[in-house]
Amino acid sequence: MMELTVAEKRELLILARETIMTYLEKRSKKYPTTANPKYLEKTGVFVTLHQGKELRGCIGYPLPYKPLYQAVMDNAISAATEDPRFQAVTAADMADIDIEISVLTPPQEVSKIDQVTVGRDGIVITKGWMKGLLLPQVPVEQGWDREQFLSHGCLKAGLPPDEWQRGVHIETFQAIVFGEKKLGR
Predict the structure, then answer these.
(1) Residue at 149 is within a domain
(2) Of 11-15, 51-55, 129-133, which range is least confident?
(3) Is there a single domain that holds both residue 91 and residue 124?
(4) How many distinct structural domains can be found in the chain?
(5) Which range marks the domain in which residue 90 is found?
(6) Most buried residue among 34, 101, 128, 146 by CB atoms closer than 10 A?
(7) In angstroms, what is the C-alpha Rg of the chain?
């Protein structure tokens, strides 16, 4: 798994916040240049926005589709403006928004549910064309055990909550999770 220093995590959080503000104010996005090889590594990334204790947006790439810094920028804008579950964030809202970034490892198939570890793993549940993803921090924040985690993964995929007992494709991934709440702005 990629290692990021505290300074790099802060830099990515600043990049996410500045990207959102620039997009909200000017409707523009421009990828900066970077010499940091970690930022150029393609990786899955999710950006989560909280307003107080409430989720305000969460969008990401589960697979290593773009370089880290570009994925952070793209998903920061998407979390703020395109999450269909929430009203778009405004520039005025940003003072109360906390940003969290999750840098993902590639998903790996598991053959047994006891290979899913709450607190370590995120999950991708797939059956046919239906797919749901939950980040590793979600079951911890919600106080779920493994079975509840799998049930909510099924719900996220649009499946009955007990579908994991009848047969679904399960993949796990890990994430480096960091946010403004812990690292500051």
Answers:
(1) yes
(2) 51-55
(3) no
(4) 2
(5) 6-104
(6) 101
(7) 17
The angle subtended at Cα 146 by Cα 98 and Cα 131, nearest 5°, is 70
What would the DSSP string read from start to end of 134-168?
E-THHHHHHT--HHHHHHHHHHHTTS-TTGGGT--
Comparing CA positions, the residue from 29, 96, 98 lying closest to residue 66 is 29
Q: Token pair 């994991």 is at which residue?
A: 164
Q: 147 and 128, same structural domain?
A: yes
Q: What tens digit of pLDDT does each residue of 156-182 get? A: 999 999 999 999 999 999 999 999 988
Structure tokens that stand for 34 in this block = 């970077």
Q: Are residues 117 and 65 in the same domain?
A: no
Whether 37 and 97 share a structural domain = yes
Domain match, 32 and 88 both: yes
Of all helices (H) and strands (E), which one includes residue 20? helix 6-26
- For residue 184, pLDDT over 90 is answered with no
Query: Does residue 184 fall inside a structural domain?
Result: no
Q: How confident is the model at residue 183 (pLDDT cuts 50, 70, 90)?
A: confident
pLDDT in tens, 75-128: 999 999 999 999 999 999 999 999 999 999 999 999 999 999 999 999 999 999
Residue finishing a domain among 104, 119, 139:
104
